[in-house]
Amino acid sequence: MLFRNLEWIIGLRRVRRFELAKILQISEPAFSSRLAGQRPFTPYEKQRIAEFLGYQADFLFAVVAPPREMRLPQPTRPADPVRILSADRAGGIRA
Question: What structural domains does the chain harbor?
């Protein structure tokens, strides 16, 4: 998924891909290949999609990539299954 913003707005607006293909006067497979980044959208196609969806083309066609390195916080201590089961039997913690 190359154009995450475009995919998001298509879903938000509940627009079907065949509708966008029809607006661009291209086939559905041709639209899908553009959306997947296999073929580029022309400037005209980008503008038509932006006008139809009501968003700026720069936003819709921004290539959003995850950070190069993502660090997740480490837990302070590992979960103790014996403690969780003991508390559950005592009526303390419910899953």
Answer: 4-60 (1.10.260.40)
